[in-house]
Amino acid sequence: MIQTGRGMHQPSRNPCVSKSQQTRFLELCQEAGFDLYGFTLASISQEDRENLDRFARENASNDLHWFNQHVHLRTHPSDILPGAISVLMLGAIYRHPEMDEALANSRAKVSRYAAGKDYHLVLRKKAARLADRFFELHRKELPGLRYRVTTDSAPVPEKILARNAGLGWQGKNTNLIHPEMGSYFFLTGVFLNADLEGFAEDLLRHPSTFPSHSNSQGLPDLRSASPENFGDPRKSSGDRYAANSNGGETARSAEQEGLFGSEVPEIPTDSESGAQYAEPSLFRAPNVDRCGSCRQCLDACPTGALEPYRIEASKCISYWTIEAKSAMPETVAANIQSWIFGCDICQEVCPYNRGAKGRRQVTKEESFEPRSFLMQWMASPTDPGESNTWSKLSVSSPLKRPGQDRFRESWKVIDARS
Fold it and tell me: Running DSSP on this structure, what letter comes out for residue 118?
């Protein structure tokens, strides 16, 4: 839904959000409880468009065929809102230590993102309240400002836009990874029909940093395996507005904490990527790729679904436990490793999640705290075909996505191997 303030007049041209107003907007993001935030343009590179087109073609004949229905919006996200020029990308951590512990001792595993309430319901309202607050503060100066919130609720490439906004880089497992906060976070976008003061000048000053980005292909990940996340496919501690931290420091801290075993990935520094700024700026280039030589996610995938920066849906556990309508192939069932809904393996082994910094990341959103019934059921999973069990598991939960019958089929696979 497109939102505008009461009594606002239709603009004769696009409004322009000043640097001070941008700063205030970002302050409101922190006050609202978002963990990551940054501005970018409401457009993506030709390279990203080609990669999304290729993903659509490769999955035209499987149960991701719906991806082809709105390819134009996926490749031209500004069309989601008439006159859209910019977007504020937001990230909200969903990791919780109780869910980590429950997964370590479970017979049936559920992806961490489904531990609490459905994030679509939570973040759409949270982001809309944030935008409304900004509008109320600046309705006189920006009478023509309009917005639209997306939280996997529209076929726009939220992950690519978040990368461009500096919230992280797309790793070899195709997930967006932040060097301090890891990858267990949801994404939300606030599209604006507004220019950002100074943004165009910064973009011209650093043309190599946007919109093309390293080796990342802008492909959807299969973490949540919802249609919108496929279409997304989904701060550094010293500067809440800067999503980039020094690559050299990251490499050293990783070595000190033993995150990468005996080999520390060759991580480029920000100076090598051109992401240095002579003067303060709200413009943040995409994070440089810090995966380096690490391939732990690729080697850990039990079904071989991952290649560097690519994922083959037909081999992915998340695809088969959430999206697929046909029977799970034996090659996947034999390697499912107790995952009944989604799969977090490629995130669990990532040094940016299992290291000391990653383990300290805990959701601030009460709605994302793991439900006690779910954790109890994971430890001793009874037949979800029973209506009372399924009702308690699925109420206001992402578990509704595959439906009761498909969820039960995955349970039967797990039960037969336990």
Answer: -
What are residue 195's DSSP bridge partners?
A: 16
Q: What is the DSSP string of 232-257?
A: -----TT-TT-----HHHHHHHHHHT
Residue 48 C-beta-side C-alpha neighbours within 13 Å: 29
- Residue 276 phi, psi (nearest 5): -115, 145
Q: CA dist 263 to 249, 256, 258, 292, Å? A: 16, 12, 9, 10
Cα gap 321→340, rounded to integer Å: 6
User: What are the phi and psi torsion angles at 255 (to 5°)?
Assistant: -70, -40
DSSP letters for 20-58:
HHHHHHHHHHHHHT-SEEEEEES---HHHHHHHHHHHHH
153-163: pLDDT as tens digits: 777 889 999 99
**Triad 233, 239, 245: Cα angle to 5°:** 60
Distance of CA 240 to the CA centre of its chain: 19
Q: Which amino acid is at 366?
A: E
Please tell me the distance from the alpha carbon of residue 78 to that of residue 150, in angstroms, as a whole number: 12
- Please tell me the distance from the alpha carbon of residue 200 to that of residue 212, in angstroms, as a whole number: 16
Q: What distance in Å separates the CA atoms of residue 90 and residue 209, rounded to the nearest whole number?
A: 20
Tell me how far apart the alpha carbons of residues 5 and 22 are, in angstroms, rounded to a whole number.
18
Lookup: tokens for 120: 């679509």
Omega of the bond prior to 233 within 30 degrees of 0, cis?
A: no
Contact between residue 187 and residue 150 where contact means Cβ atoms under 8 Å apart? no
> For the whole prediction, is pTM greater than 0.85?
no
Q: Read off the tokens for 355.
A: 């290291």
Q: Are 17 and 142 in contact (CB under 8 A)?
A: yes
- The bridge status of strand 306-307 relative to strand 310-311 is antiparallel
Residue 172 in contact with residue 289, Cβ under 8 Å?
no
User: Tokens for 295?
Assistant: 């391939």
Residue 58: pLDDT band (50, 70, 90) is confident
Which residue type occupies 16? Answer: C
Q: Check if the beta carbon of residue 363 is closer than 8 Å to that of residue 92.
A: yes
In the chain, what is the straight-line distance between the N-terminal and C-terminal CA atoms, in Å? 46
Nearest to 184 by CA among 347, 334, 30, 41: 347
Residue 84: strand, helix, or coil: coil
- Tens of pLDDT, residue by residue over 14-50, are 899 999 999 999 999 999 999 999 999 998 888 888 8
Question: What does DSSP assign to residue 131?
Answer: H
